[in-house]
């Protein structure tokens, strides 16, 4: 199903001339910045990320690229700034992203052999934050409505969507290692339009209202300070700060890229030499 979706999404590009067409591959790490991790960029708590795609060069400087990526992110208050560790919240989420971006190279790769570049575009991604309780049972957080989403008592809090648009952008450097292979390293950030990537955004809601509407498990996973040694078991009052919704969440990738010229897959079985006195000669050629 995923392969079929990728084919359909990239179908408009397939008719473009192959001499400027590349398969692209990405392997690296993914991380996130949000209420459970306020660092703009860091490598600890990173998880793996993989991507495949297509790229078309319009010339030595401008290219159109599209890819689909698979990654995992996580955040944990145990590794957060000291004043927020009392919440003891944590989450993980798988990320599936499809994007279309324009890439601009500052140098002619064919002449210099390397080039720094920038890229930006539009993406669509799917996420679903989850956590584990003290017994090791996995729970998806969005259906629990830990901040009162979907409850009549909080009409301004709707259930957040798990598929959203984003704006990917970043920088990189690439090297022509062979006439058909381009190797690089890039960092790409994702500007999001949701603050619930980590299931944390606004304030705590009334404990009894949440328990009645979503169950005791929602209360248990909305505030986990009591699980800490010496932590407070007092559930925060209605309206107490849980997250900083005005900041918004981000995620980002960094890693190695590889672009493979599609000409490497071309094959011509027969090449006809120009006719001479004894006629033409046919010989095989393999690229």
What does this structure look like?
- It is a single chain.
- This protein is mostly beta strands.
- The protein has one domain (2-127, 162-202, 242-283): Porin.
- It contains four helices and twelve strands; from the N terminus they run αββββαβββββααβββ.
- Strands 1-2-3-4-5-8-9-10 form an eight-stranded antiparallel beta barrel. Strands 6-7 form a two-stranded antiparallel sheet. A two-stranded antiparallel sheet has the order 11-12.
- A hairpin with a 2-residue loop joins strand 8 (163-178) and strand 9 (181-192).
- Helix 3 crosses helix 4.
How do the strands and helices of this protein lay out in sequence?
Elements: H1 2-10, E1 21-33, E2 47-57, E3 62-76, E4 90-105, H2 109-112, E5 114-126, E6 130-132, E7 138-140, E8 163-178, E9 181-192, H3 207-214, H4 216-222, E10 250-261, E11 271-272, E12 282-283
Antiparallel strand pairs: 1-2, 1-10, 2-3, 3-4, 4-5, 5-8, 6-7, 8-9, 9-10, 11-12
């Amino acid at each position: 199903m995923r392969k079929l979706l990728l084919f359909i999404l990239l179908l408009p590009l397939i008719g473009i001339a192959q001499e400027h067409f590349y398969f692209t591959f990405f392997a690296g790490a993914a991380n996130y910045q949000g209420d459970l991790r306020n660092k703009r960029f860091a490598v600890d708590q990173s998880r793996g990320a993989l991507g495949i795609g297509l790229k078309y060069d319009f010339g030595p400087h401008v290219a159109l690229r599209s890819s689909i990526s698979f990654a995992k992110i996580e955040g944990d208050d145990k590794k957060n700034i000291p004043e927020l560790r009392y919440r003891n919240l944590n989450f993980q989420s798988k990320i599936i992203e499809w994007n279309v971006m324009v890439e601009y190279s500052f140098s002619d790769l064919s002449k210099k052999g390397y080039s720094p570049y920038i890229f930006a575009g539009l993406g669509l991604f799917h996420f679903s934050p989850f956590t584990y309780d003290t017994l090791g049972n996995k729970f998806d957080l969005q259906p629990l409505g830990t901040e009162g989403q979907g409850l009549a008592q909080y009409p301004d809090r709707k259930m957040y969507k798990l598929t959203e648009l984003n704006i990917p952008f970043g920088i990189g450097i690439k090297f022509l290692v062979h006439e058909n292979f381009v190797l690089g390293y890039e960092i790409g950030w994702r500007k999001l339009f949701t603050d619930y990537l980590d299931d944390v955004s606004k304030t705590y809601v009334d404990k009894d209202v949440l328990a009645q509407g979503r169950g005791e498990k929602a209360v248990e996973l909305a505030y986990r300070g009591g699980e800490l040694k010496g932590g407070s078991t007092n559930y925060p009052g209605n309206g107490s700060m849980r997250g900083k919704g005005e900041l918004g969440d981000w995620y980002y990738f960094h890693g190695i890229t590889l672009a493979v010229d599609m000409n490497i897959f071309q094959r011509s079985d027969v090449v006809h030499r120009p006719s001479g006195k004894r006629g033409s000669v046919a010989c095989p050629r393999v690229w």
